[in-house]
């Protein structure tokens, strides 16, 4: 894997999340609930929820990537698993930081589709190899991305593999 990275700063993140929220708003899509893909989607989902004045959020804890370029066989939900029935019949906006392989978002969209067919997906970044094409994308890249919330090692002194 190349050492070349797309670097997102906090300042640029603020601009990117605002632009992404504006794109959703200008499309005419008004979600009833934002489904956040944790952990990477927590901060983008919060910023977009504020920009859209949406207070209804659901967090799905999904595990797939175990390091740079390494994954589990399939994405899976991690406890605590919420009661998803609140999604029934709602217009959903799924938010994550990146559609890399797209398999995590495909998994989450599959969960949401059990409750509604009104689903859109928004990400900061989408990679060309993604198996799904998101409805709202701030930027396309094929590089590994350094996000401001995960670029430093954990404070416990253990170096994370996904930085």
TrEMBL record:
Transmembrane stretches, by residue range?
Answer: none
* InterPro entries per the UniProt record, alphabetical: PRTase-like (IPR029057), PRTase_dom (IPR000836)
Q: Keyword check for Glycosyltransferase, yes or no.
A: yes
Q: Record's Gene3D superfamilies?
A: 3.40.50.2020
Question: Could you tell me the keywords of this UniProt record?
Answer: Glycosyltransferase, Transferase
Signal peptide (residue range): none
One GO term in the molecular function aspect is: glycosyltransferase activity
> By its UniProt entry, which SUPFAM superfamilies does this protein fall under?
PRTase-like
Ranges where the Phosphoribosyltransferase domain occurs: 5-151
- Its recorded name reads Phosphoribosyltransferase
